[in-house]
């Protein structure tokens, strides 16, 4: 199986965390004979500066040709005021949409060594292992029409549209159920069916798909309650399946259960498990350029890539084990720092994972 990987470091801390993830990938490549070949390009603000577009046609073509894509993060205040169609985030949305990456897996797993890093009590989060399955190419992020205008009375006015077709709901529900089948066999579908028509359809279709998965225990929850339950008793969840916007918000919230958003990787998959892999966090402009960002979410995204796109559980497991060993050693970036631990930076953390992986 060929392993052509397109690497898109992006903006802000993107290049810093990606440098560490690439070190780990290159070592795994040698150690496990993966045959990985890396190509580098730009996305987001970096692409806007280089190509005049946050996703150049040639980059999109490279993404189509690649077997998998590894992404850092995009965006930054310097591009907040440009034409909205050219914003870095548009490049990210376009690559997700053009590649049909509708199934976004965001696992929130608490490494036991980080029980003290979460802002929640250790007993609330101990043993946490939940998977948020987020619909990624539909809903309010892409719905048309959307418009900003000035009304006749001079008021500024804007609206977005939240559409879902039954086929879009069915395919993401299937991802959720398939994941539940290989995990704890519990699926909670999160919506706002007490208010939104799109959520009413969502719930109906999830119930139809449930008929094909009699072994999975299905529940439905309103998104406001889910936000509350995630901090009250997060271990009640196994798989959460939800729409694009709710999944965006709930996954950032879930990240704090694991200690930091700097720990949360993700996979965005198409119907054939071709995927793009990226940390759930953004470009963190507030800490960019200082060498202090946590690279583990990106390193763990490499592991997800090897597991889901290339079926290399051996290499994926080894990377996760190396990360766990480094946490055992007490090494911490600032975002996961706790008493008695040793502070390190982005490169220090990446080097430690490389050293641990070498010795496995
Ligand atoms: P953010 O995730 O970039 O940062 C939120 C907070 O978390 C910040 O305080 C940041 O310092 C911290 N943080 C994030 N990643 C970290 C890491 N690896 N290690 C340590 N701390 C980390 O979210 P934001 O500030 O709302 O957005 C900043 C920019 O990133 C915006 O332009 C936004 O659009 C973009 N963004 C991009 C992606 C992506 O590329 N997938 C995701 C989210 C946000
Ligand atoms: C994410 C990000 C993106 C999203 C932005 C940058 C478009 O927040 O990947 O979680 O909202 O999907
Ligand atoms: Mn987000």
Automatic annotation (TrEMBL):
Q: What is its EC number?
A: 1.1.1.85
**What residues form the membrane-spanning segments?**
none
Q: Cite the position(s) of the site with description Important for catalysis.
A: 141, 192
Q: Which Pfam families match?
A: Iso_dh
- Per UniProt, NAD(+) binds at 76-89, 282-294
Q: Which SUPFAM superfamilies match?
A: Isocitrate/Isopropylmalate dehydrogenase-like
Q: What class of enzyme is it?
A: oxidoreductase
Domain Isopropylmalate dehydrogenase-like, residue spans: 4-353
- Record text on cofactor binding: Binds 1 Mg(2+) or Mn(2+) ion per subunit.
Report which superkingdom the organism of origin falls in: Bacteria
Binding, substrate: 96, 106, 134, 224
Catalyzed reaction equations: (2R,3S)-3-isopropylmalate + NAD(+) = 4-methyl-2-oxopentanoate + CO2 + NADH
Q: In which pathway does it act?
A: Amino-acid biosynthesis; L-leucine biosynthesis; L-leucine from 3-methyl-2-oxobutanoate: step 3/4
The text of the family note is: Belongs to the isocitrate and isopropylmalate dehydrogenases family. LeuB type 1 subfamily.
Q: Which NCBIfam families match?
A: leuB
HAMAP family noted in UniProt? LeuB_type1 (MF_01033)
Quote the function comment for this protein.
Answer: Catalyzes the oxidation of 3-carboxy-2-hydroxy-4-methylpentanoate (3-isopropylmalate) to 3-carboxy-4-methyl-2-oxopentanoate. The product decarboxylates to 4-methyl-2 oxopentanoate.
Q: What is the recorded name of this protein? A: 3-isopropylmalate dehydrogenase
Q: Which gene encodes it?
A: leuB
